[in-house]
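Sanity check. The docking grid for adenosine-5'-triphosphate depends on where the pocket ends up, so I'm generating a full predicted complex first rather than guessing from homology. Inputs follow.
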Amino acid sequence: MKEMKEIVVIKLGGSTLSEMDNNLKEIADLHISGIPVVIVHGGGALISEWMNKLEIKTDFIDGLRVTDENSIQIVTSILGGLVNKTLVASIINKNCKAIGLSGIDDNIFTAKFLDQTHGYVGNIINTNSEFVELLLNKEYLPVIAPIAINNELIDPPLLNINGDIAASALAVSLQADKLIFLTDVDGVLDENSKLISTLNTAQSKSLISNGTAKSGMIPKINSCIDAVESNVESFIINGTKYGNLTSIIKNSESVGTKFLV
Ligand SMILES: Nc1ncnc2c1ncn2[C@@H]1O[C@H](COP(=O)(O)OP(=O)(O)OP(=O)(O)O)[C@@H](O)[C@H]1O
Ligand SMILES: [Mg+2]
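Predicted complex below; grid placement will be based on this.
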């Protein structure tokens, strides 16, 4: 794998999907220029929209969706179906070779139940990046939905996993050069909503414990800490602004939050 150019794993936040055309153009161009790119995507807002349409109630505990038997069917269909296929189609329309997968395929992600209260929500226990590497070697851009195989004998054997944690686990398994989170804010913001341009592990942990970093920012920060500790450069940037991704790749301009060990 290391003979290949350095891999970039991008977590495409569901929060950025409304600006999809901008960020997908930048991602596709990067891949076409010869940089191996992998996308792991979210899609929380669209799942909630479909839950509402189908009149299924959604609760969140600690920022994680409580996923009952009905919900895991919707989560799998929306993430693995609608979101994943829309992204792949849009990338192919930008003249880039893309393949859509979920974490189920070739057991990219195996998980076990997180706990008793969240239902079909998983904690990743194994990541298999073999098929993703194969696709990268063939110059495909893999687009991966964050769902996992449940290794317990439960029907359906599916678990909803957090996209940020999935992206980080895959980046570590691939020994990627960079892990970049595209989201709908400029990066991690301090208590005065000012951008923090660099964060080390201790500073990151204290932002979570003092409540400055909340909700969806918590798994993102924890995922960056895990990745930098495994030698993967990690960033959180605004994915709704064209040019930000290229600035990070070319080291031309400091944007977003960079994590340091
Ligand atoms: N200290 C903080 N700095 C920046 N954003 C924060 C902070 N604390 C909480 N947030 C929230 O985190 C959100 C980003 O996480 P969120 O999970 O909503 O998006 P995403 O991960 O990009 O999308 P998805 O979860 O659908 O993939 C921001 O929109 C913001 O409201
Ligand atoms: Mg999120």
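Relevant for the grid: Residues 80 and 145 are 5 Å apart (CA to CA).
Also worth noting: The mean pLDDT is 94.
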